[in-house]
Amino acid sequence: xxxKNRGRKIYKTKEKNYYGKSPVxxxxxxxxxxxxxxxxxxxxxxxxxPIMKYTKKAGDSxxxxxxxxxxxxxxDDSGNLIGAAESDQPATxxxxxxxxxxEAVLGFSLSSTDLISGDVLKTALKRIPEGSDIExxxxxxKVSGGxxxxxxxxxxxxxxxxxxxxxxxxxxxxxxxxDGYKPIANISIFDDNITPATFxxxxxxxxxxxxxWLDNAFDAGGKPWTSPFSQTAVDxxxxxxxxxxxxxxxxxxxSDFTFPEFRESDVEFLGESVVSGERWQAMTxxxxxxxxxxxxxxxxxxxxxxxxxVLSGSEEVLQPMTLKVNTLVVNIDLDAIxxxxxxxxxxxxxxxxxxxxxxKMLDLIADDISGFNVIVKISGANFNPSDITKAAEAxxxxxxxxxxxx
Length: 406
Hints:
By secondary structure, the protein is an alpha/beta fold. It has 13 helices and ten strands.
């Protein structure tokens, strides 16, 4: 199966039918129109001039403001705009239009422990299967929970204790490139319980007294979460993205666009916005902002989503008509789905082989991801390497040419 970008929909309006007039009627109409326009113009000028003089403030320019007139864009013999990028061409609903193939991304994902030192990283790169045509190495620079595994210079990251790694970005990139691979960065976004503990305005704040919200009682291990409604939290992620993008990572995967689980009692303290049906707008707005920053640095942004969350309908950031990013990394965690995926009254069984489960999941979420370029990420600590290899082969047989194994 091949996923195609459906493009934008084109809406056309229907033209109304008008009945023609006789030649005498047409002449009479034209004459009457000229007289009316002349009279309206005279009256308008007579009234407007004193009003304009009366309302004009001192210091207003008497010079007319420049006006930009529309010009006809140059086109070639085929009617295409000259000098326009492919994405600038008008959208078409022609089903026979050729599909633009994207670069195949075959990658291997490291773990955060692989970034302890340069020697550990070099050893980790030896785990990449030989003869697998793997070209890219995914590096988890900021992971779920908020820890950062490189020597970040962002003050908020250092002050909160989020920085765990000692290697610089340039050292990480150099080690990967010297081994013959290309690095891809992965940045967890809103699954962060560290920075809001130090900077409460990055998290969810109660309406009554402005105190910090926790996902459980403090003595029961309750944690704060960074909030997409917080501009401070968005700015913090932007600072990390700007630091990472363009530093040798040509591709940046942004993951964990997620909300915590809110209870009814939480809504009383935080307000209806945290459970509103429109809350996804905060996520997509942040994703689009990150996209602009990443491409401005010369890198490409990929958006990672959980296949299980897509199937259950809880991956709220996945809004094709709103998102600017067009490449998805669909993470199929074989460990997470092996006991089934629950979606309301339906339970989807994934008790087959790794390859069978991959194919079944792709079938189930095909409609949800069909408008994007798709990279499948396969993870599963309870499956042996041969199972993961067969699952990667199933992805290729399915018609998707990009895959990252973990």
